[in-house]
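Render DNA-binding transcriptional regulator, HxlR family in 3D.
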Amino acid sequence: MAAFPIQIGGKWTAMIVLCLEAGPRRFGVLRRHLRPISAKVLAETLLAMERDGLVHRRPVPGADDGGIDYELAPLGRTLLGVIEHARAWARAHLEELSRSREGFDAANPAS
């Protein structure tokens, strides 16, 4: 289920948190997992998340290319439960949301 109606931080923050749930990842790996995101937006979002204390940015030990890993900080990990509750809510109410959106769109074709 990709629907995620509640925004935490920026548009991509929750998706980045989920990508980092299993452990640290490099920028390129995050970008591949979040295909529609541009490199610029990913970099800006990661910087904002680092500023908020949600992620840590660390050099990759022994990497010749100066690679950087991003990992969830303890504060970022606290979002995992919030995100799961929001996803459960979306699953439980998806049909209702879809009907409401279809009704609105039919009544407001210019929107």
